[in-house]
Design brief:
Ribosomal Protein S5, domain 2; Alpha-Beta Plaits; 2 domains; eight-stranded mixed sheet; four-stranded antiparallel sheet; 23% strand
C-alpha cells in the first residue's frame, strides 16, 4: 500500500486560526511518500528523513495512545511535546495507536520518505499519509474529514494546540478557507490561480514555541493580542475576497499588512524580515512568512508564472534557497507506480 501526501502553505491566517479567525490555505506539490506493508507481530516505523526506525508491540501502541490522551486531559501539553522531542517517531506511533484503538490492531511496517520542507506542513503531511495508508490497509475507507482528524491528533503531539488548518488542508487538498467555529475546512471551488515562490529562511521552524509564546502573551495582555487577532481577521477576509476575484494587487497588500500586524507579537526573525524586505525593495506584489513563523519559510507573490523564476533568482542571489511549488493540488491519496 502506497500513499502520497502533499504539503501546504497558509496564504493568510496563521496563528489567528488558533483563536477562531479566518485562515486561507492551499495544498502544495511537495510530497511525503508512505509505504505500508504487512508485518508479523509489531508496528515498525522507519523514517528515511530522520534516519530513525523503531518498533512497538500492540500493548505498547495502545498504552502510548492512552498515556498521551490522559496527559492532554490533564492539560500537560508541554510534557507531551517534551516526549515528542525526545522520540521523534512517537507522534507517528501515536497516530497508529489512535486509529488501531478504534478500528483494531493489525501488525504492519510503515516507511516514510518526505520532500516537504519544515513549516510547510511537514508533520501533518506525514500523519495524513499514515492515516490514509492505514485506512486502506485496514479496509476502512475513511473519509477526508476522518483522515484529517487523525492527522491532527499527531500534530497535537508535536505542536501542542494546533488549529487543524495544516492537517485538514492536506487531507482535503486544493484551496481552502478555515475557521474552527464554522466546521473547520471549507474547500474554495472558485479560488483564483495564483503563483508563488517559496523562500527558505534557513532557520528551523519553531511552530510549537511560537503558538505557546502567543498564548502566553494573550494571557498576560488579552486586549492587546485580541486587537491584533481582530485586525488579522479583517485582513484575511479582504485577502479571501481578492483571491476569489483574482485581484493580485489586493492579495499582495493583504500579505504585507498581515506580516506587519502579526510581527507585533515578536515571532518574526531577522531572516524572515530580510526576505520580506527584499520583496518590498524589489517592488514585488507581496510577501510574508507562512506557517508558524519563528523560522521556516516565506511566500512571495508573483504576477505570473514567468515571474516566479525571476523571484527565485533574486533570492538565490541573496543567499536563500528558493523554489516553486504547484498550488491547489489534490489532497492525500493512494499512489500507483
Amino acid at each position: 500500500m502506497k500513499v502520497c501526501s502533499p504539503g501546504k502553505i497558509i496564504l493568510l491566517g496563521e496563528h489567528a486560526v488558533v483563536y477562531d479567525k479566518l485562515g486561507i490555505s492551499s495544498a502544495i506539490g511537495k510530497y511525503t511518500d508512505i509505504r505500508i506493508s504487512p508485518a508479523d507481530d509489531d508496528i515498525f516505523i522507519k523514517s528515511e528523513n530522520l534516519g530513525l526506525e523503531d518498533k512497538k508491540s500492540r500493548d505498547e501502541i495502545f498504552k502510548l495512545a492512552e498515556q498521551i490522551d490522559k496527559l492532554r486531559e490533564e492539560g500537560k501539553i508541554s510534557e507531551i511535546k517534551d516526549m515528542a522531542k525526545k522520540d521523534k517517531l512517537l507522534p507517528s506511533f501515536f497516530v497508529v495507536g489512535k486509529i488501531m484503538a478504534e478500528y483494531g490492531f493489525k501488525p504492519c511496517s510503515i516507511e516514510i520518505n518526505s520532500d516537504v520542507p519544515k513549516n510547510l506542513g511537514s508533520s501533518a503531511s506525514v500523519f495524513n499519509g499514515i492515516a490514509k495508508g492505514l485506512s486502506e490497509f485496514l479496509g476502512l475507507n475513511l473519509n477526508k474529514e476522518k483522515v484529517g482528524y487523525f492527522a491532527n491528533e499527531g500534530d497535537k503531539a508535536v505542536h501542542g494546540t494546533p488549529s487543524g488548518i495544516d492537517a485538514y488542508t492536506i487531507a482535503y487538498g486544493g484551496w481552502n478557507s478555515f475557521r474552527k467555529s464554522e466546521g473547520g475546512v471549507k474547500p474554495l471551488e472558485n479560488a483564483s490561480r495564483i503563483n508563488l515562490a517559496i523562500i527558505d529562511s534557513g532557520e528551523p521552524a519553531r511552530t510549537g514555541e511560537t503558538v505557546l509564546f502567543i498564548k502566553k502573551q494573550k494571557e498576560e495582555s488579552p486586549s492587546f493580542v485580541n486587537g491584533i487577532m481582530d485586525k488579522l481577521d479583517v485582513i484575511s477576509h479582504n485577502g479571501l475576497d481578492a483571491l476569489k476575484s483574482c485581484n493580485l494587487k489586493t492579495i499582495g497588500i493583504a500579505m504585507i499588512k498581515y506580516y506587519n500586524e502579526l510581527k507585533k507579537l515578536n515571532i518574526s526573525t531577522p531572516k524572515l524580515d530580510e526576505i520580506t524586505k527584499i520583496a518590498v525593495k524589489s517592488k514585488l506584489i507581496g510577501a510574508k512568512p507562512t506557517g508558524g513563523w519563528g523560522g521556516g519559510s516565506c511566500i512571495v507573490l508573483a504576477k505570473d508564472e514567468k515571474q516566479v523564476s525571476e523571484i527565485i533568482n533574486i533570492y538565490k542571489n541573496n543567499g536563500f534557497n528558493a523554489f516553486a511549488a504547484k498550488l491547489g493540488v489534490d489532497g492525500v491519496h493512494n499512489k500507483t507506480d
